[in-house]
Each structure stands twice: as C-alpha cells, then as structure tokens.
UniProtKB/TrEMBL annotation:
Protein's name in the database: 3-sulfolactaldehyde dehydrogenase
Pfam families linked to this entry: Aldedh
Family assignment from sequence similarity: Belongs to the aldehyde dehydrogenase family.
Job description of the protein: Part of the sulfo-TAL (or sulfo-SFT) pathway, a D-sulfoquinovose degradation pathway that produces sulfolactate (SL). Catalyzes the oxidation of 3-sulfolactaldehyde (SLA) to sulfolactate (SL).
InterPro entries named in the record: Ald_DH/histidinol_DH (IPR016161), Ald_DH_C (IPR016163), Ald_DH_N (IPR016162), Aldehyde_DH_dom (IPR015590), ALDH-related_metabolic_enz (IPR051020)
Keywords: Oxidoreductase
A GO molecular-function descriptor: lactaldehyde dehydrogenase (NAD+) activity
Length: 475
C-alpha cells in the first residue's frame, strides 16, 4: 500500500479476486488501525506541505500524473476490468475520464479565487477595506466504491491536491488495485511525501479510525445509504460530502423519439452490469407510448451480450461478486412472488445476472423502493407527466432523472418539479461529465462532487479586513 508516500507491505494480506471466475489476481496489505493512525499522523505533516505547495507546482504534478496514466492507459484499463465488473471497453472509457478529471483538477487549481468585500455597506464598516480568500482545510479522508475504482478515486484525490490538502484514501476492499495505480502515477509525478496515502484492507479494521479521528477534517464518501448514515453518526464535527446512490427514474412521454429513448435507457440500465449510482432503474412511460416502448426495449435488451468482459464484443460482464448477484436474484424473485411480471431475464450464473425487465411491480416490494445496483429495470405505464413526476419523487432518493419529450413546456415542468440533483432532457439520467456538480438530495447524499465543486468543499473562506484612517474623500 502507499503509506504517506512510501510503498509498504504487510504480513497480513487480502486477496483481490477477478469476479468473473474468482481467480486470485494478487494480494494487497490488510492494514491495521495502527497503519491508519500512522497515515493520519504523517498526513498532518503532509497537510502543511500541501498548503505551502505553490499552485504552479500543484498543476505540474497533477498533469504529470495524468500524463503517466495516459501513457499506460491500456494497462490501467486491464486492471480496472480484471478487478471489477467492467468490460474492457467500459474500463477504457473510465481511464479516459480519469485523465480528464485530473486535467480539470490542474486547471481548477488556478481558479481558487476570493473576492473583495465592500465593508462600507455597513455603517460601522467605513474606513475598512478587505477581501476573503479560500484556504485548504487540512486532511481529507476518502472512502471510495468498487464500481468506478479509478475515476471516483481521482475525483477525490485530484481536487484535494489542487486545493492544497493532504488526503488518505480507503479504496473498496474488492477493487484496491486501481487506486494503488493512481498513487503510483502521483508518486512518479513527484508529489511530496505524506500528502497522499492509499490504505488497503477491510473497512472494519481501518474505516472507523479514519472517520472518527479529530484531525481528519472532511470525509468524502461514495457508497450506499446505510453506510453513509453510519459514517454521519460517527464522524463528529467535520465536513461530509456523500454520494449515496439512487434508483433513478426516466420519463418517456408519448411525443418522445422512442428509438432514442430506448437506446439511452438500455445503455443507462445495463452499463457496468447496472452497478451505477445513476443507472436507470424505474421507467415511467405515458400510456399511449407504452406498448411501443416496451416492445422495443425488450428487443434491445435481448440483444445485449453478456459474457467474458475481456472481449471487445461483450456488452456486460458479471456483478462484483456472487453475493451481490444472489441479492439481486432475491429481490427480483420477491417482486415476482408479490405479483410482478418477469418480461425477460431473471437468470443467474455465479456472479453473472442477465439483463432483466419487470412490469406490474408492487410499490411495497424492495426493488421498487431501494437501489437495485444490478441490471434490472422496472416499467410503469402512467397517465400523464404529472403522474410520472409524482411516482418519480415517491422514494427516498433523488440523484439523477431523465425525461424524453419534444415539448419544452413539459421539459421545464419536469425540471422544476423533480426532486433530484440533475435532470437530463432527451437522455437517461445515466449521464455525467466530470466538470459538472454531481450529487443528490434526500437519501442520495450531501454536497456535490465535480472538480470545481469538490474544491469548494475542500476549502474554507477566510475574511481579511484592514481598518484604515482617512480612506477616500472626506464629505
């Protein structure tokens, strides 16, 4: 593991498995609480180094790390695909996005600006001039998920370094290799020691230490709602940024381009085997368009190729492990037992679960209320846009949504009424660029990621006021 700028081994190890066949790729250290405490103590020194690192050097280091990854992009993509669920095509796209995230971080480092303040807006502010500037908060703890094991780490590390902070990453236990490769890129780029650590192992051994330590001033977490709530209870008085997933809706109105809607929703539902926080889970289709959409959607789903994630022709690989596939299978079976109709899919083979479509899903079953995080879609006919909006909002999530329509009035109606962090018009909710604010409302989390917006969370404003004599013209 990368401990305060040094590569450190351990007698305690954790196996990293390929979920496709459960073969062992390698082992990584299983860190202890003492390892994490050491990382935090070293990060206190690293935070001072990071804060004093000139902006031009921060930019140079981040860009060099991006160059390093770009020169080795295929090796990075192979690692992502091996340890996770993504096909090689999906993994290559993640590497491209990681490079973009880092380059955005380098650019945003030069834009951490303050503002002058007109103190004489107040009667007691006359003869005062001043401004505010933003300063780094210190040590950031980052806890990252398995579904984007490189780019989601970059979304925390890039902004942290750009804004002059130290950062300790606890990557997902099942996908630590991509995070270590990111650390390798920063090590090669000349990042001073103690600014970055990547601590591998089980969350139960090191997670609470990172979350509760008073010197860690912010926790940036991407993962599930239950874990997020647990972190919030334990963290104490510190900043929290959390992206906690969703069961994202898509709305298809009768005037929509059905072919476009089907293509976008199929891709949005099944990419990364459905293990995507903004993946399409619930689709509300206006009744007049329901039969046409349903027929086309099932036809497109049937064409989806599931298999060896190493092959260029594969559309979807396995879930992250068999345990998750069994959970998805259980939720689907529960829905069917409660009256849902299985239109296609519903078959499991080890960690593989076939693309699945359900309709007539009862509102009180688990799959209708929670995030499936698997390749399962629920279809609902609705009478009109207002009914679709009400059903979309009737869950404890609100990350992204999509609406397909040619009517701009209806699009704006959905924009203002849907309780989500982002809405995509004539696209599924499964759309994101790395420069936009990304996050949700309700159980979908707190704060926003996206480089510029993460930097705002990772810094604080400091006000400076000068009291002067005889400023300006005397009246």
């Amino acid at each position: 593991m990368y401990l305060a700028g040094k590569w450190v081994g351990s007698d305690r190890t954790t196996e990293v498995l390929n979920p496709q066949d459960n073969t062992v790729i390698t082992t990584v250290p299983a860190a202890t609480a003492e390892d994490m405490l050491f990382a935090i103590e070293e990060a206190k020194k690293g935070a001072k180094k990071a804060a004093n690192l000139p902006v031009h050097l921060r930019m140079t280091i981040i860009n060099k790390a991006a160059d390093y990854i770009e020169d080795r992009s295929e090796a990075y993509a192979v690692t992502i695909s091996q340890e996770g669920s993504k096909t090689i095509k999906e993994a290559r796209n993640e590497v491209k996005r990681c490079i973009q995230t880092l380059r955005l971080s380098a650019e945003e480092a030069r834009r951490i600006n303050g503002e002058t303040i007109p103190f004489d807006q107040s009667e007691n502010g006359e003869n005062r001039v001043g401004y505010f500037y933003r300063f780094p908060i210190g040590i950031i703890g980052a806890i990252t998920p398995f579904n984007d094991p490189l780019n989601l780490v970059a979304h925390k590390v890039g902004p942290a370094i750009a804004s002059g902070n130290a950062i300790i990453v606890k990557p997902a236990t099942v996908t630590p290799l991509s995070a270590l490769l990111l650390a390798k890129a920063f090590d090669h780029a000349g990042l001073p020691e103690k600014i970055l650590s990547v601590v591998t192992g089980n969350g139960r051994d090191v997670g609470d230490v990172l979350v509760t330590h008073p010197d860690v001033r912010m926790i940036s977490f991407t993962g599930g709602l239950e874990t997020g709530e647990s972190i919030a209870r334990k963290a104490g008085l510190k900043k929290l940024s959390m992206e906690l997933g969703s069961n994202s809706p898509a709305i298809v109105l009768k005037d929509a381009d059905i072919k476009q809607a089907v293509e976008a929703c199929v891709s949005g539902a099944y990419s990364a085997a459905g293990q995507n926080c903004i993946g399409v889970q619930r689709i509300f289709i206006e009744e007049e368009a329901y039969a046409d959409f349903k027929s086309s959607f099932l036809q497109k789903t049937a064409m989806y190729k599931v298999g060896d994630k190493r092959l260029e022709t594969t559309d979807m690989g396995p879930l992250i492990n068999e345990k998750e596939a069994i959970r998805v299978e259980k939720w689907v079976n529960e829905a069917v037992e409660m009256g849902a109709e299985l239109l296609i899919g519903g078959k499991r083979d080890g960690a593989f679960y076939s693309p699945t479509v359900l309709e007539n899903v009862p509102e009180n079953c688990t799959i209708a209320r929670e995030e499936i995080f698997g390749p399962v879609v629920l279809l609902y006919p609705v009478s009109d846009l207002q009914a679709a909006i009400e059903k979309s909002n009737d869950v404890n999530f609100g990350l992204h949504a999509g609406i397909f329509t040619k009517d701009i009035e209806k699009a704006f109606s959905a924009i203002h009424q849907l309780n989500v962090g982002g809405i995509m018009i004539n696209d599924s909710g499964d759309y994101r660029i790395d420069g936009m604010p990304f996050g949700g409302v309700k159980g979908s989390g707190l704060g926003r990621e996206g480089v510029k917006f993460a930097i705002q969370d990772m810094t604080e404003p400091k006000v400076v006021s000068f009291k002067l004599q005889n400023v300006g013209t005397q009246l």
